[in-house]
Design the sequence.
């Protein structure tokens, strides 16, 4: 039986064969996240305007197994864009998924493209 965490695997740009149209860019808050659903997955999408970058990762916190990462605070740790879980403040790199506290598994990340004012998230299935 597949656990909920096993549904989420990092996808690199070169592995992407589906670009899912998640919404218009103006539907995403600046400096914050939104949860979108793709099939059975909940994906957190962040518009990190201070860095002029977009990021996507699993919405599932690997510690509490709650769908909350889209509500986490985004910021920077020594040049690494990160999100802090709103439940326990553990932080994860938005570039690699690494747990920056070093005590939890990494989270899955997904590539993001902006095209014609739409946000696309990359998947490999």
Sequence:
């Amino acid at each position: 039986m597949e656990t909920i965490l096993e549904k989420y695997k990092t996808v690199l740009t070169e592995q992407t064969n589906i670009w899912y149209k998640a919404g218009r860019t103006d539907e995403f808050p600046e400096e914050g996240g939104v949860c979108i659903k793709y099939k059975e997955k909940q994906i957190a999408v962040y518009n990190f305007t201070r860095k002029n970058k977009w990021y996507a990762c699993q919405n599932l916190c690997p510690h509490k197994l709650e769908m909350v990462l889209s509500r986490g605070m985004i910021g920077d740790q020594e040049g690494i864009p990160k999100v802090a879980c709103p439940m326990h403040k553990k932080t994860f790199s938005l570039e690699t998924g690494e747990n920056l506290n070093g005590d939890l598994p990494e989270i899955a990340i997904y590539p993001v493209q902006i095209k014609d004012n739409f946000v696309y998230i990359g998947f490999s299935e």
The radius of gyration is 13 Å. The first strand starts at residue 18 and ends at 24. Residues 37 and 43 are 6 Å apart (CA to CA).
